[in-house]
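Following up on my earlier thread - several people asked me to post the actual chain instead of describing it. Fair enough. Here it is, all 112 residues.
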Amino acid sequence: MIGILGGSFNPPHEGHLNLSIEARKKLSLDKVIWLITPQNPRKNLTLYEDIERRLLKAREITKSFNFIETSLLENHLRTSYSYQTVHHLNKVHSNIKLVWLMGADNIAHINQ
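Reply from S.P.:
Thanks for posting it. Predicted structure:
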């Protein structure tokens, strides 16, 4: 089972890391993938660091945790919407159970 943690990771921080570690323990995840979005549609892009810089910072903070993978899949898919990414992942990995992980800051907007 793989956990998917989507977000802007602007910047990646201990909260992302702690959520990943706890989710792995509580859900017995094999892996957690950090999906670094090009832009959260509800946030101002001018406040973002370059996506490659955010990826480098994410890799730096996760380097001691081999179960965390960082990904620019949403950048490659040219989307910033989680439902499109989940749809793609379910098609590509139909034989793997995926679990969506999210921080408390996004729960208030999940219906959007």
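The beta strands are 2-7, 31-36, 68-71, 98-101. That should answer part of your original question.
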